Amino acid sequence: MKDSFKIALGIFLGLLAAGLCAACIFFTASFGGVAYLVSLIESPNYSTPTSPDIFLEPTSEPVAGHIKQCDDLGLSIESYRVSETCPNGLGQPAEGAKFVIVEIRAINFSDEVISFPYIDFLLDDYQAGLGSTGDCTYNDEAFGNACWQSGGKLFPDVSCQGWELYEVPIAFDTSTAILYASFREYENDVVCDAQWSLERP
């Protein structure tokens, strides 16, 4: 009788211990495990793996006058001005519009002669051009003409500078405007996108 009681008591204690272990595991998984994961996430030594950013050069946030390099060509905003006349001093913007004239500089950072690419410029959503009145004309100081004076070749450490013209509404805010530049150099299949704030932050 005593042996049967011992066996029954052993079975009962074994089942009780198993139940307590199950409850312990459940509690740990439900509360302690969650708390542990939270503590790991909040720990400064823990970082969630992330995929690397995919971007086109150049990558840094630009400021006015900051050189942007792509395929050894640097671009920078030298200055800008709001004007009621064309860059050559003749002609005016359309009624309700104004001109923003941006002086842009390019420089060859390489040790070789490079062919100057065609660069597409946008001021916010406005395309560079000559305005809508037909009064403005390109001169030797226009960016494209100034940079093509050597047959479209830019020698090492040589720079060129010229204006790009934008016709924008009178209410256009230059303090928040962004200049975008984009070109593709087909010989080496290089694509470059850059942007600058007209004004320093």
Number of strand elements:
10
- Report how far apart the termini are: 92 Å
What is the number of helices?
2
Radius of gyration: 33 Å
Q: Major beta sheet, specifics?
A: 4 strands, antiparallel
Average predicted local confidence, pLDDT: 74
Strand ordering within the main sheet: 1-2-3-8
Q: Give, in order, the helices and strands.
A: HEEEEEEHEEEE
Rough outline: globular
The residue ranges in which pLDDT falls below 50 over 5 or more consecutive positions are 21-60
Helix content bin: 10-25%
What features would you describe in this structure?
The chain is an alpha+beta fold and 201 residues long. It has helices at residues 2-42, 143-147, and strands at 68-70, 73-83, 97-108, 114-115, 120-123, 126-127, 153-154, 159-169, 178-185, 190-197. The strands form three sheets. A four-stranded antiparallel sheet has the order 1-2-3-8. Strands 6-5-9-10 form a four-stranded antiparallel sheet, with no helix packed on it. Strands 4-7 form a two-stranded antiparallel sheet. The model is unreliable at 21-60 (pLDDT under 50).
